[in-house]
Amino acid sequence: MPAGDAIDVHAIRIGTFAVPIAVAAAAAVGAVVAVPVVSQPDQTDQTAGAPPRSVEGRAAAVTPAGDEQPAAEPSLRNYGFFSGSYDRALRPEWDYELEANVWYVSPGGDISIGGSPKAPTASLNVDSPRAAPLAEIHARFDPYTVSFRGSLLDVDGVADLTGPLAVGPVAFAAGETVNANYRLDTADVRVGRRVYQFDGEPNERGRPLLSSGVTLEGGLRIYDASVGVIGPSGSAGASFTHLEPVVGVTAELGFADRYQIQLQNSFGGIFEIDGQDSYSVDIQVSFKYRPVDNASIQLGYRIRRNVLEGDDYELDGAVAGLFAGLSLRF
Prior knowledge:
By secondary structure, this protein is an all-beta fold. It has strands spanning about 5, 60, 70, 95-115, 120, 130-140, 145-150, 155-160, 165, 170, 175-200, 210-230, 235-255, 260-275, 275-290, 295-310, 315-330. About 0% of the residues lie in helices and about 60% in strands.
């Protein structure tokens, strides 16, 4: 690496966070909507003295004077500002959704330890893509959801330094072979509210031909990270934990409850609290295909830009890559 590059690295460690079960959030796909079953009155079923039947097949109210009153209309769910005038389609009921993915992710950016100059992750050979777990759990209480999300990233690299490198108090010389570790784990919990839901006309299966929804979310995100370098001249590193508030929005577009496009955006940050400040932007877009009501396969892309700073470290970079996995709802 070029002379003067300083690195602050020793295993970015973001502790393993159980991506627990919680309440549905921006990803909630189903809402149950009742559609009245219409049955025509059957004259042969009317026995003497029996109360008249409504067109919905339920007994109509009869006043003392004998006048028939129309039966009450069933209540139908209606969310948001533009919920439409179509009849609500009967959608599959689900309370929990679990998404398990493999994220082919690559870290990038600069790291610094102990006030030394920033060094790019490429100089330590910890920027190559690798498979990492990525998971979400949602619990739904219409129109509210509770969601847990988490990811784990642990990268080891071996680099032959092309120039001197300072990592905290240790100065590595050009030509040394060093072992580096970069670990960054994240977990967040959010509560969301469905603010918009539209279901179009149902198909022959009773599913809406076109549906869309928007959920707003708020919660907390935690980072557990560590960076480290070991070589003939010694070892140096740092580990740290950050907690930041986060807000987000999830938008969904579905077709016949078989295909779905989902966009998730979230923004987090905290400034100068206990010697730490951070900010992050997380964008994820995915496509789901659901061959059966309770299971789907998905493919997507996620990028998260984050800056984490403390008294003796700084991590300024991003992680990004494609992911694929399975989603189950029940």
